[in-house]
Each structure stands twice: as C-alpha cells, then as structure tokens.
Design a protein that fits this description.
Two copies of one chain form a homodimer. With about 400 residues, chain A is an alpha+beta fold. Chain A has helices spanning about 20-25, 60-65, 80-90, 100-105, 110-115, 130-140, 230-245, 280-285, 290-295, 330-335, 365-380; strands at about 10-15, 35-40, 50-55, 70-75, 95, 125-130, 145-150, 160-165, 180, 185-195, 200-205, 210-215, 220-225, 250-260, 265-270, 310-315, 325-330, 340-345, 350, 355-360, 380-385. The longest helix of chain A is centred in the middle third of the chain and has 17 residues, at about 230-245. Chain A is globular. The mean pLDDT of chain A is about 95. Chains A and B meet through helix 1, strand 17, helix 10 and strand 18 of A and helix 1, strand 17, helix 10 and strand 18 of B.
C-alpha cells in the first residue's frame, strides 16, 4: 500500500449509511481520502466524506464508474452489483472483501451450503424456488412445523424472514426463492466479529451477547463480555475463525450464532462487513472494528482486539407513531451519565424502529453498564416534529 | 441547546488545522453540522468538515461573515480577529470561549498581569514596549541575566521567544512589545487541560509531563500520568481549576507549568483551547478533550476525565532537510506495534519540524508505552518526494 504513505489514497465505500460514516471517522485519522457512493445526497456518510457520489449500489454502471474513481474499494452493505465489482477486479482494482465473498453471502442458500460443505454447525435446511414449492415440500413431509422461511436474497434487519408455526399461518409465506430451516429453540444469541488480512493473519473480537426487542426485530442491546460459559464462547470464537479462514476472505466478517436449549452453538448467518454487534468496539476495544476494516483493506497488520472495559450497546431507534423530520429528546440527560458515548447517524427522517444512532456505555462493572444502558433506553426519545 | 436535538445545529470553527479536524471527528458522532473558516482550501479540517469557507481568521469581514452562517462559534487558534467576535456576540451569537478570554490570552502581558492579580504563581516579569526599552531596563538594573523575552502578541510553538544569556547575546532581542521574565531553572514541564461549562462545572484531565526536543522547540513526547510527586501534581491541578474559575471561562483551557529546581510549580502560559498536550485523551481517557470542548460549547454536562490507560504521545514532525509534498515512511511497521494509534493531519506539504501528525501509544504499563513511543520516533519518517 505504497500510496498510504503519500497522503493521497482514495478509498471508495459503497453505500453511505452509518457503517460508512463510522469507517470514515477512522479513515480521516490516517488522512485517507474517502469517496462514498449512495443514492441519497444527505446520507449519513455524506456529511464527512471527502467526496459524495450520487448513484445506486445495485446499478452496474454506477458501481463501475465509482470504482474507476478510487484506488481501493470496500462497502458497508452486501447487496452490491457484483457483476460491476467482478469487472473492476478484472481491470486491476483492489476490492476488499473480494466480490466472490459477496456473491456467496448475498444468497442465504449458498451461505448455508457453504456451512454444510465445511462442516460448520448450522440449523438443518432445504432450499425451495418459491412459496408454492415450500407448500409442496410440506405435503411431501420434507418440512415439519414450526419452521423458519428465509428469502435467499435481499433480507436485512429481520426483513425477508417468516416464522411459520403451523398450517394455519401458511398465508404468511414470503414469495421468492427461499431456504427453510428447522426452528432452533433459542436460548441465547451471540455474535463474533473477526478480521483477516492478506497475509492470513486472523483476529477475533470478544464474543458479544445480543438481546432482542421482539417489537423492533432488531438487536436491542449488545453485551460484552457475554454471559455464556467459556466452552460456548470458545466454540463461537473458533467457528468464526474457521469460517473466515475457509472463505480465504480479507476484511471484516460478522458471524451470528444461536445457542439452543441444549447448549449447542450453531451458526445463524454472517455478514462480510462491520456489524451492529461490533459498534461497542469504538470505545471498549483497543482497535475498533472500523479501524480493523481499514487495516484489512490496506493489508496492514491487524490491531489488538483486547477488551479494555465491559460495554453495553443500545440502538437508538425511531419511536412508534413518529414519522418525519427527526427530533431527539433526552440527549442532555443521557450525556450526564458517566461512560455514555453517543452516536447519532444523521438520518434526517425518523420512522418507527429505524436505526437512528446508538449509545455505548462503558464501565468497570458490566452490571453498572447494563443499568445505565436501561436508563438510556428509557430516557432517549426519537420523535418527529410533525407528531409532537 | 434546543437545536442539538434537531440534527441541524451549525457549529462554526475558526481555523481548520488539526485541532479543528479532531473536533469535527467528535462532532460528527453527534451529527453536528461543521463549518470551518480557513484561508487554505486543503487545510486538515477541510477533508471532513461539512462546509469549508475560505477566509482569514485575522480579517474582520471574513470572521464576521463566517459567524453569521452558524449557530455557535468556537475556534482552534487564539489569534482571531476579536473585534469581529465582539460584534457577533453583541448580535446574539454564542461564542465559546468568550471573546474577552481571547483578548486577554492573545496578549502575554495581559495574561501575566492576570496571573499576578489573582495570586497565581508565575515567573517574575516586567513589560516593555520595544527591544530598546528592554536595553534601557537592563541599564537601569531592572533586568538581570539570564532572562527570557517573549513578544506579547503572535508567538506560537516556541516562536516569539528569545533566551538572553548575557550582554553578548543582546543582538538576539526580538522587536516589539514584550515581557521579560526571570529565567526559571526548569526541572520539568507539566500541562493540565481543564474544562468548564456554563453551569460552572469544572473537570480537569490528569497532569501530563512534556519532554521537549531542543532542536524542534516542540513538545516531543507527552507522558500521562506524569512522574512528578503527588504534591506537585495536586498543585498543578488546583492552579488550573483556579485559573479557569477566576477567568469565569466556558470551554477548554490548557495550562502549562514549570517545575523549578526547588520543586516549585509555576504557571508558564495558557491557551484557551484544546492542546497538543491533550491529544492522548482521544484514546486514553473516557472523554477526549475534543468531546469535552463540544460539551462545553453546547453547555452540556462535562464528561469523565478518568485515565483508562497510561499513554505516551509523540508528535510526528517533518524531517530535517525535507520540504515539499509529504511522503511518510515506516507507517506499516509502527501499526504492527500493539497500542499504537496513528493520527495524520493531512497537511500536503512537509517542512522541517512542522507538526504533521501524532501517535498515541497506550499500554497497561507506562514503561512499555514509553519504549514503543521511542520505537515509533525512530521508525517513522516524514520526507518530501523532492528530496528522496
């Protein structure tokens, strides 16, 4: 990465949401010139990107033209036009992670087949071409209730997933090519963010535990360190490292796990990028997941993933019943709590459960951090001017 | 600060160097819209500021017009056109720190008189209107050798200071209104960054020790915690808090101290802003000095100044014999050291001893951090393409 040394390196980031914004906050420390491709001129990353380029990450021409502007390409979302990336790579552009990783992960069917092929424990599954084909599978006795249907492509933040309890809820089946999974009786949900560079060096962040808000279908609180036993924790860490190694992937990978009622650790899914479950690393770990992404993209030595302080991360989501220009409440109160670190992404419009920001509480005591995180949740309000 | 809650707050920062850049890195986390006034279009802060405005901070019209664009005004340098600030304040703009603080601190004579009036220990001094007047003072026996001459206005990073050993070095006297100080026999140099908000809340960062490079006349390494005894450390902390209280100042104030050969702690000078001696707080303290500045400017509760890990900060300055477009050497090697945090400011042109960036090394052991900081100094190179 000879160009890093010249202070002229152009890093392209596809999509300009909060992950891109937090990556640029790190990239600016190394004086890297940041280019963002997004279809919204006031996307979160636009306010601090060196250059904002308007265009769609799903469009071949937009992605291709954007790639020709930069020295290095990465992304904050996996649903990118892969054909454009493959062409750019053919023409010599360094893209991290590699387009073939995106191609695999964009399709939850291919993702599951990868797990099966490499002996990675995951819920039993079958793939089907449509809702109709799933009904056929049920009639043939291939599928038993309850089960989970996941669209192979396009799912995000809990969208594209249906839980079918019994024959009476078959009307909820989603349309499109899907995989059908045995429903895991979930005891806990864990996540591991792991990074690998071009020299094959691998570093994993400590296991976090994800607490879900059933209404928002979003991870509601992230706790680090998790409260699972060391056996399960080591299992999750070793699986995450095995997956990134088997993928021969450069970059940052988030792996989500279920721990079932019998204490078995199975992989749920993965994302080839920084992740909500790693936001706490900005304050609680020696190297944040965003700096780690930069290190991997630049093929630099990976940074230490040592946890400095216990941390609890709370998502700040739009309040129910509010849609329109955003207005935050309770900011001053939460900033009076020691150890509270506020991140507002800068989205202009709030909607119910939209991710608008997050707070990481660090403390020498996890119990204290949890207590304060609950206070933050109760105190912060994300309203709209229109409904006030 | 009702506007903070709307995601539309416009923060103006006068001058766009590294201090402004690091302030914007924090402001972007709270989704504050940043405006920077600088005469250089590619100043360090321009790469991440929401809006870069071209103009001189010394020019009345430029400062006044800039102030009319924003909701709140702060600065990264004290040599701002104060008349424009006073007019803007009269028209209702919130400016933090207040223009009267700038007026006082811009003039080292007024600064010293403030210390004397408030019983703050500082080296004995007298003020003179010119080099000629100083010669007169010597003839009248008011001044004895060795002494230090400081220009009342415009000094920065060691410029505007002359050390006069004896009559033979009188040719080195600087021209302009000056103060003449008894030369302190310096044992150590300390610094305290302290903040105060509009509610009168005061928080001080731990005392740091500054090691100087005699060639560059710049603080070369900053060590936190310092190695001075607790009595001197408490003296420095209490003086810093007394000064900001006596000034009734809102904002961040850096106070530099000498410890003389007898162990006495005296104030050297102060700056009404974030400071090189506080850069380590980005990684080593719960709240960085830049977030603290934001909190003070927004009149929010001040953040915790608890030291999380011992830290050593090293300035990255231009190598001797190199002037021109910058090229860094050894970046990959230093990033391989655990605990190394790199900040490159993004200045395009290097000059001998120009501050181009800094590195903060954090470690559970201060000795380890010091060892690595020395390695960083030996490894990093700031060259110019032209001279390679």
């Amino acid at each position: 990465m000879h160009k890093l040394l010249t202070s002229n390196l152009k890093l392209g980031i596809i999509a300009g949401g909060q992950l891109a914004k937090m990556l640029i906050q790190e990239a600016s420390k190394w004086d890297i010139d940041s280019y963002v491709l997004d279809s919204e001129p006031d996307c979160p990353a636009a306010s601090i990107a060196s250059h904002s380029i308007l265009g769609s990450y799903r469009d071949y021409d937009d992605v291709y033209r954007f790639g020709k502007m930069v020295d290095l390409l990465s992304f904050e979302i996996e649903h990118v036009n892969v054909e454009a990336l493959i062409q750019l790579k053919r023409e010599g552009l360094r893209i991290v992670p590699d387009p073939r990783i995106l191609e695999l992960i964009q399709d939850k069917g291919l993702q599951k087949e990868f797990f099966a092929r490499h002996g990675i424990p995951t819920a039993e599954f079958k793939t089907y071409g449509s809702a109709e084909a799933i009904r056929g599978g049920i009639e043939r006795g291939e599928i038993s209730y309850p089960f989970v249907q996941k669209l192979r492509k396009g799912g995000y933040d809990g969208r594209g997933v249906a839980v079918i309890q019994d024959a009476g809820s078959l009307d909820s089946l989603l349309h499109g090519a899907s995989l059908v999974e045995r429903r895991v009786e979930i005891d806990r949900e864990l996540s591991v963010v792991v990074a690998r560079n071009g020299k094959g060096e691998i570093k994993s962040y400590p296991v976090v535990e994800m607490l879900f808000d059933p209404k928002a279908n979003l991870a509601d609180m992230i706790i680090c360190p998790s409260s699972v036993g060391s056996e399960q924790s080591e299992k999750a860490l070793s699986l995450a490292a095995r997956i990134i190694e088997d993928l021969k992937m450069e970059g940052v990978l988030a792996v989500e796990f279920f721990v079932d009622q019998d204490g078995e650790v199975v992989v749920n899914e993965m994302a080839p990028r920084t992740h909500n479950s790693g936001h706490h690393t900005i304050e609680s770990v020696a190297t944040s997941q965003f700096e780690q992404q930069l290190r991997a993209v630049l093929d630099l030595p990976l940074g230490s993933t040592q946890l400095l302080l216990p941390a609890v991360m709370v998502n700040i989501v739009g309040d129910e019943g509010h849609e329109g220009p955003v207005r935050y409440e309770g900011v001053e109160e939460i900033l009076a709590l020691e150890g509270v670190n506020l991140h507002l992404y800068g989205k202009k419009i709030t909607r119910p459960y939209r991710k608008m920001g997050h707070v990481t509480v660090v403390s020498a005591s996890l119990a204290d951090a949890l207590e304060k995180a609950k206070q933050v949740k109760e105190t912060i309000g994300v309203k709209s001017w229109k409904h006030s």
